[in-house]
Design a protein that fits this description.
Blueprint lengths: L2 H12 L3 E5 L2 E12 L5 E11 L5 H18 L9 E11 L4 H7 L5 E2 L2 E9 L4 E3 L9 H15 L1
Parallel strand pairs: 3-4, 4-6
Antiparallel strand pairs: 1-2, 2-3, 5-6, 6-7
Helix pairs in contact: 2-3
């Protein structure tokens, strides 16, 4: 599978996307909102980002995840975070060449934020494999089962 085929498949699950250019990344941005009573009646704004790089190292995924998170924070609308509202940034970086360090990084607990979640993800086109954090931390534990399902449904 090539990047265009992967990107098309992902975008089709959402229905629409917008293109942005942030810090040398050409990114497709997808948006969704979820509300669940199990989340103590919280609404989350789900920002998903997809981009391609020839090579992905640990510094690349860290920078990309930060760029995506900052975009989501800047474009978050609604009640202030923490008042039954928050957001999640799913930053998917796709490549044929991903370093072991980058894979290890995305499989570790993501950076903590107040009422916001940063989820770095890499998709290896050469192996058709998705790498992301699969554990459940204490901070935000009510969301992580749904995050894993969301990631598998939309990005694998």
């Amino acid at each position: 599978m090539d990047y265009l085929e992967y990107k098309t498949r992902v975008i089709n699950t959402f229905g629409n996307s917008i293109n942005i250019n942030e810090k040398d990344y050409l990114v497709d941005v997808l948006y969704d909102e979820k509300f669940k009573l199990e989340w103590y009646a919280t609404k989350l704004k789900m920002f998903s980002f997809i981009s391609y790089r020839n090579t992905v190292g640990i510094d690349t995924i860290k920078e990309y995840s930060k760029v995506c998170f900052d975009y989501a924070r800047k474009n978050y609308k609604g009640l202030p975070r923490g008042l039954q509202n928050g957001f999640c940034s799913f930053s998917v970086l796709v490549s044929d060449n991903i370093s072991k360090e980058a894979i290890d990084y995305v499989q570790k607990r993501p950076t903590k934020h107040f009422s916001a979640f940063e989820m770095p993800i890499v998709y290896d086109l050469s192996k058709n494999t998705l790498y992301f954090y699969r554990e459940t931390p204490i901070w935000g534990r009510i969301y992580y089962k749904d995050f894993r399902e969301y990631i598998m449904k939309n990005f694998s």
